[in-house]
Design goal:
Hormone Receptor, Insulin-like Growth Factor Receptor 1, Chain A domain 2, two-stranded antiparallel sheet, 243 residues
Amino acid sequence: VHPNVSQGCQGGCATCSDYNGCLSCKPRLFFVLERIGMKQIGVCLSSCPSGYYGTRYPDINKCAKCKADCDTCFTRNFCTKCKSGFYLYSGKCLEKCPDGLEANNHTMECTSIVHCETSEWSPWSPCMKKGKTCGFKRGNEVRVREIVQHPSARGNPCPATTESRKCIVQRKRCQKEGKGKKNREEKRKKSNKDESKETRQESKGRAARRQNREQRENNNKTQPKKRKAPNKEQDLALVDTAH
């Protein structure tokens, strides 16, 4: 190593040499050796590169290499990300996960095995055949349940979510499509027609009675009063008295 030359240092170096680059760093920067061919050059960085972890000392801050299977690490014995082919578990990089755990190829970690979970069965559906609830004696009824937790790669698979069984019902005749509605409409029209007929008849009856009453009143006003018929017995008595 050539004598230190502090003048003209770049890249955060506190001291440097023309042959070895940085020899020490400014405060809070990390010193790390980078290999270029057969030569190592010192550089000063604000954070350690991938595959290294930082250590701080009173006189110098250094970047040290992680273990060979670590991609990034917090300390030499605690890995935070593994290289390809290894799975992270409790700060260690493993080729195979422990019992009770499974390898997650997406996160490259050992995770807990998740089994399938389903909801409770729904009530049985009405007895049906070919989508209808009439016109048959023997049909089928079904019930369903939902998946509330999908399994992981090594978890127990999900069971069937649909169940069917035979059923027997009292046979009933199916109404033709639109016939029931048509009958209801005809009944409604007939009812309205009957009500209208009764209303018209009542109106006619009231009008006729009113007309008869008015006619009788007019007749009483225009006809002279009838004279009272003489009493024949009284007339004979008067004749006898005269004689």
